[in-house]
Amino acid sequence: MKLIYIAGPFVGKNNAEIQQNINAAVDASRYIQDVWPDELCPVCPHTNFGGLELMGTCTQDQIMGMCIALLGKCDAILMLPGWEDSRGAVRERDYAEERGIRRFYREEIGHMPVNEIHAWLENYRQEKA
């Protein structure tokens, strides 16, 4: 099973915007679980670490360090809409690019790069065979 990291904005102007960002990441994770339940495991830092910052137990820099460590264990990264405006998501994308981690881009909420992910998984299946 391959791990796919979900990257997108977390911080927002208010709690409603933060919750909207978390929901977008959770929705992408659920979609991945529904379509590829036996092949892909979504890694969603929004749910893993988001509460730590909101509760004040960790700084944003500490959380970003944990996110990068987790991303380093993943096989791919899915960039959610709005990632370009998020310092954290840009850093995650740059890290993935530097290390050759496969990158996928969800350009809009209704669009998931299904064909690209299917092709990537098919290559993986053939390599294993």
Characterization of the model:
- The protein is an alpha/beta fold and 129 residues long.
- The chain has one domain (2-128): Rossmann fold, CATH 3.40.50.10400.
- The protein is 54% helix and 14% strand.
- It has helices at 15-35, 45-54, 60-71, 87-98, 114-128, and strands spanning 2-7, 40-43, 76-79, 102-105.
- The protein has a four-stranded parallel beta sheet with strand order 2-1-3-4.
- Strand 3, helix 4 and strand 4 (102-105) form a beta-alpha-beta unit.
- The protein starts with a strand and ends with a helix.
* Count of discrete domains: 1
Q: Tell me about the biggest sheet? A: 4 strands, parallel
> What is the molecular shape?
globular
CATH homologous superfamily caption: Hypothetical protein PA1492
Q: Architecture in CATH?
A: 3-Layer(aba) Sandwich
pLDDT averaged over residues: 88
Strand order of the largest sheet: 2-1-3-4
CATH topology: Rossmann fold
Q: In terms of structural class, how would the helical and strand content be classed?
A: alpha/beta
Residue runs with pLDDT of under 50 for 5 or more positions: none
Beta-strand percent range = 5-15%
Task: Give me the count of strands.
Answer: 4
The helix tally amounts to 5
Helix/strand order, N-terminal first: EHEHHEHEH
What's the CATH C level?
Alpha Beta
Helix content: 40-55%
- The N- and C-terminal alpha carbons lie at a distance of 14 Å
Task: From the alpha carbons, calculate the radius of gyration and give it in angstroms.
Answer: 14 Å
